[in-house]
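Q: Got a minute? One more chain.
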Amino acid sequence: MGGFIYWSTVGFMDKQTNTVIETDIEGLADVYQRDGLGGLIATIESRIKRDPSRSSIYLVADHLKTPVVGNISRWPNVHPDHAGWIEFKLREKASHDTTQARTRPFLLKGGINLLVGRDIRTLEQMKRLVERALAWSMAIAIVVGVGAGMLFTRSVGQRLAIISRTSQRVRRGDLSERVPLCESDDDLDELAKGLNSMLDEIQRLLSGIEHVADNLAHDLRTPLSRLRNRLTRLRADSDELDFDSASIDACLADVDQILATFAALLRISKLEAAGRGKTLSLVNLREVVQDVVDLYEPVASERNVEISVTLDDLSVLGDKDLLLQALCNLIDNAIKFSPDGGRIDIDLRDERGQTKLRVSDHGIGIDVADRHRVFDRLYRGSAAGTIDGLGLGLTLVKAIFEYHTATISLLDNYPGVRVLIEFESFRDAKFSSP
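A: Always. Here it is, folded:
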């Protein structure tokens, strides 16, 4: 655009100046051919008198380029360019200012040299004016373009950040989150609408699955409970009816295990469907940990396992009963997998404003290949061997801590395993009121 403007203004004036000079030369050549040298001199002297500002330049010189008549004192000592034009500087007698002149030489018959030109001071001023205007225009366009680009990038970046934060909250289990719309009907709004529609459909499908799972669990739990009651009555009458009480005890144990499995699965499903905690309150985590330790110390003593605790007085936003259940599962696992004479270390402390809880044992540990799967439902690692368990303990633990927006990690303790729980800090936590 700048090149077109330059060409259409300065370029046009430049061509127009060249055309005027060439037309003037043709006219003077006709005068010389018709009236001779005397007529040419008279015509040039007449034009010089009418142009005291010397906007037009005339010079007639002999074959040695010695001036005969004209408004400049000598033939310019400049060679013509490839198009035959001579540009040189003129000094004004009155003001001693220097101006630029453009001339064209023409050889007349008889060896007479004719030089005709124009003072192109106005043209040069126009060039500089247009160049400055274009430079300022380009600078302003660059500033405006960069500023608009930064504003656009910031606007788009903020909206993408909102979408990202919403997706993070959905990933944590809060399926009620939706991407806010700006009502601008642009591509990002279309993306937000698509994501919201997808979340609506996912929530509908999960609700259906949860409903079916609940119905299935309740339907199966009812006949199993009846079966257990009947087995209990049979067990009570086994001596009189001469039944095999050991077989009945085994049946009761199996039914109890099935019922425990259903109860755990239902609890995990409810926690996962609930997402992050909605009705959490301030809980003294040190007291919760100490209560669990007091509860399991007799069990640990029977296994000749020592429990060592280092507890800071820290509180978190949570559900006390759920935290008790999760910690009971962790410490119960640690005792189960600790060798005779082993030790369990429980450490609760604040690290740079974040509450961290570590439960470490010195047992058989968890294989690296199993660490990403031990939180799956009904999965039991290869190191579990014949130790009793449903394969749901760590699944429930993970569901509880995710409900509290805390992260759980499994690390090496050399030997054994270290469970690290990191709670969200108060300044980052955003919990809804009940």
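A: The longest helix spans residues 121-171.
Q: Perfect, thanks.
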